[in-house]
Amino acid sequence: MILDGQTKVYGIFGYPVKHSKSPTFQTAAFLHLGINAVYVPFEVNPNDLEKAVESLKVLKIAGVNITIPHKENVINYVNELSEEVKIIKAANTIKNIDGYLIAYNTDWIGFVEGLKELEPNLEDKRVLVIGAGGSSRAVVYGLLRENVDKIYLANRTLPKVYNLIQEYKSHFRIIDKIITPISLQDIEGFLNNVDIIVNTTSVGLNDEDFPLFDYSLLKDSHIVVDIIYKETKLLKVAKEKGCKHQNGFPMLIYQGAKSFEIWTGQKAPVEIMKKSLNLE
Ligand code: ATR
Q1: How far does the centroid of ligand 1 lie from the alpha carbon of residue 254, in Å?
Q2: Where is the SDH C-terminal domain positioned along the sequence (predicted)?
Q3: Whole-number pLDDT of residue 279
């Protein structure tokens, strides 16, 4: 690839950002389609986020992804929020149109597209979602958009679940009928009621983490997604049981693919992006 005076710059704001895989697969996509652009990591200290977002205008950076811990705060510094960002209250993508910054959230669609690799028809499915933080808000938004039948939303801190339901109410009218809040202790009693199980918490990141529930109760008919980027204990047991299962990489690729499409207007070469991470 030859860089020149017209090379567009894209990137990712995170803290830390060293381990991000986005530069690898976004660059692979630009190269594959012959787009004159680069995608670089920017380590942005939380105290500097506002300045970093302003700098997008000064430096005419065409677009960035936003990752932990900036996804919530960044919405204070852009010119416009897309509809899904207003609801989810977190953004992972900014597009810079001549100095006018629009924030998007593509995590929800990344999650849905990834899950559809395991189960194309989400309508009428019953889902257990564990966690009620930022990732969970995107996952739940995606599931509601796909018209699932039921969401059992489990979290260590139950007020967060009530809060999410309250905030989503004006956008999804029958949400009270769809989402049932449950405590972590009650998960085992609901396993037979669900088709899909999604972990959005950080539990499992370390192998010593205490399990969220007794994983030996999984059945082979369960579809299990853990949005952590590795084979967690939960996924290991799901594999042993013969469940369809998935870690966080499909969601990562598809959220990035959607960001790519927002920025370039071109269809993202998803298979190429996956291949660049050795996921195929
Ligand atoms: P993210 O943006 O990745 O979702 P977050 O907003 O900090 O991160 O949310 C983290 C989620 O993991 C929350 O649901 C959190 O539970 P609480 O709301 O009770 O804090 C959950 N979580 C983190 N550590 C946990 C643990 N040890 N046991 C159970 N849940 C945990």
Answers
A1: 23
A2: 248-277
A3: 85
